[in-house]
Amino acid sequence: MIIQLKKNTNIKVVEQMTSELKAFHILKDGNDLLITGSGLKEIPDSLQDHVHDQWVFNSDMQLSSKAFNSNKAEIDLGTIKIGGKTNNVALIGGPCSVESKDQIRSAALLLNDLKLSVLRGGCYKPRTSPYSFQGMGKEGLLLLAQMREEFGLKIISEVRDATQINDVIDYTDIIQVGAKAMYDQGILRACSKTNKPILIKRGFGTTLQEFVQAAEFVLSGGNENVILCERGIRTFETGTRFTLDLCGVAWLQEKCNLPVILDPSHAMGYSYAIPSLSKACVAMGVDGLLIEMHPDPRNAKSDASQQLTHAEFENLLTVLGPVAKSVGYNLI
User: Fold this and answer.
1) What was the pLDDT predicted at 44?
2) Are 282 and 329 contacting, i.e. CB atoms less than 8 angstroms apart?
3) Would you state the torsion angle of the CA atoms of residues 165, 103, 155, 203, taken in this order, to the nearest 10 degrees?
4) Tell me, what DSSP letter sits at residue 332?
5) What whole-number distance in Å separates Cα of residue 68 and Cα of residue 1?
6) Distances in whole angstroms, Cα of residue 325 to Cα of each of 90, 129, 235, 283, 316
7) Rounded CA gap, 271 and 156, in Å?
8) HSE on the CB side for 158, CA within 13 Å?
9) Under a CB-based contact definition with an 8 Å cutoff, are residues 94 and 265 in contact?
10) CA distance 85 to 61
11) By the 8 A CB rule, do 175 and 196 touch?
12) Backbone angles phi, psi at 262, to 5 degrees
């Protein structure tokens, strides 16, 4: 249940209600909101005098639900905006992993030349094998920060576990919570205490309800800047890496008030299909695409098969332009 209190409710009353209802208290648009579990259906009579409005839910998809707020959240990055009523498709590009200054600078140069705004690059890599490249760590974050300084780009990078969450928050503009970390409550709680945008990737065995509830951890802590990212789920199919769940995306667009970004690179696992999948995503009116590209994919230290060359990435922008225009969207 979400409870909106009357204006100018005394702070001691707010604290008392928060404690009595075992609720989260946040301030949204100048209003005091109390958020409880979906099990609460009625407010005690003794507290009714302080209530302005209330919303009752059958699940813990609450702050993110269109039943609470039908307007899609807008993520303001200063130079660009994602979601809201902008009709923007943010094309976020960069390598799977930051490998060297020359490599990440070449990606930054390409984005700058194409007038795109957001550079991605992994620094802490949650690899399946302990013998795989694990990322450059803080050194990689410092290289990304240099690219921001030199080119004015916004930076997104992934947090692997709670031990480096503060570094990722400090050095990036968007914090990515990966598919393997979306259940880590230490990470989600830390992300709820910053106002920086948080991009949460859906786990490959995660239901839509569980996916949105991960976002609720961040929202209930007071951070309204949450983006959802569909990156493919594990099915019986072995010909592709994962299965890109466009049905799930349609469900999120219908039920959820958060921006939705898609990652066809991880879903497919092979670069040849990225243009076709990207066109399908844009045609759905999504808020962004996360595309991996590398100056020399064959020699990439991680996910080599799914990364586009820089020439292929540039051509992708040309291919997607008419599709975006046909559904009233702009590539940024």
Assistant:
1) 87
2) yes
3) -60
4) -
5) 10
6) 14, 42, 33, 9, 14
7) 21
8) 27
9) no
10) 22
11) yes
12) -115, 150
What pLDDT, on the 0 to 100 scale, is given for residue 40?
A: 82
- Which of helix, strand or coil describes residue 235? coil
The C-alpha atoms of residue 39 and residue 215 are separated, in whole angstroms, by: 19
pLDDT in tens, 271-328: 999 999 999 999 999 999 999 999 999 999 998 999 999 999 999 999 999 999 999 9
| pTM metric for this prediction | 0.94
Contact 179, 204 (CB under 8 A): yes
Residue whose C-alpha is closest to residue 294's, from 91, 90, 105: 105
Candidates 75, 32, 71, 59; CA nearest to 226 is 75
Q: Rounded CA gap, 182 and 214, in Å? A: 6
138: its two tokens: 């803080």
Place of tokens 């990966």: 178
Residues 6+ apart with CB under 8 A from 79: 117, 152, 154
Euclidean distance between CA atoms 288 and 285, whole angstroms: 9
Q: Are the CB atoms for 244 and 286 separated by under 8 Å?
A: no
27 phi, psi to nearest 5 deg = -105, 120
The CA-based angle 191-194-200, given to 5 degrees, is 35
End-to-end CA distance of the chain: 37
Kindly state the tokens that stand for 89: 């498709």
- CA atoms of 237 and 76, how far apart (whole Å): 38
Six-digit token string for 144: 């990304």
Rg over CA atoms, the chain: 20
